Amino acid sequence: MLLLKKDDIKKVFTMRDAIEADKEAFRIYCEGKSVNPLRTNISVPSQDASMLFMPGYVEELGCGGIKIVSVFPKNAQKGKPVIPATVLLLDGETGEVSAVLDGTYVTQIRTGAASGAAFDVLARKDSKIGALIGTGGQAEAQLEAMLAARSLDEVRIFNRNLSKAKAFANLMDKELESYNTKFVAVDNSDDAIENADMIITVTTSSTPVFDGSKIKKGATISGVGSYQPHMQEIDSTTLTRASKIFFDSEEAVLAEAGDIIKPLEAGIIKKEDLTGELGSVINGSVLGREDDDEIIVFKSVGISVQDVVTAKKIYDKAVEKEIGVKWF
Length: 328
What we know:
Blueprint: E1 2-4, H1 6-12, H2 15-30, E2 34-35, E3 40-44, E4 49-58, E5 63-71, E6 85-91, E7 97-102, H3 103-122, E8 129-133, H4 139-149, E9 154-158, H5 162-175, E10 182-186, H6 189-193, E11 198-201, E12 220-223, H7 236-241, E13 244-247, H8 250-256, H9 258-265, E14 276-277, H10 278-282, E15 296-299, H11 304-321, E16 325-326
């Protein structure tokens, strides 16, 4: 069994690798070639937190796995990861655990890569301006995925606390300097999305974080923060203006994502307005962007096949390059 820490993973696996892994995962999922049960979500009321268990199996890659991930917002005050996680990769022939991976980092890169995959497939080729709303633990990977998908001149960054937005922008100037993109902290979400070609929301807000009437024609929006029915980052106006609405998993989104559940229950949108899963665009069975004026929404809550495929790709590269610690 191989133990792979964050630093080990970073040595062998890039964000571009993660985007390709997610694209493969979404294709496998939509073709029904994986076992991907809905996550088990155990609430921890005393901490306003959740513990989630996400198993999965992919026959064609000969592997299975489970991610144990928690969302504990109060950890930020303790200097601990807000979303701690561990991924176990299982050998599909023996059932043995072949690797234990830093699930916090795997979650960050595969969740960021979901947005990257959506932008890679759906965003305008000439996209130059991005917007990132939210600067928590997932934000850096989301930002890098945006940059890996399209060569952007500028990304506007919004947090309700402007000083946090500025600190994050300054940090990204160093961490992501190789992309040669300008990062600008702004003090309201209207400024963030103005004329933006690509927009990511990565918050746990229960109310919409931007005004959908102000989104430009041709924009692509990725909503990744909302993962429970009471949460809603994307307003109904955005959905009614959208030409297409895609998901990582329609089943998972309709069970978990307030961004879609609330407008459906209110009758603002209908199931007929939902286009389908991103994997169906990747395998060519459904059309993605058809013209430059389409507003396209991608809603992701995360599915275990992403973790299994990503973990398998990381493991294979680590074995090839002899990275990691062999336990037994």
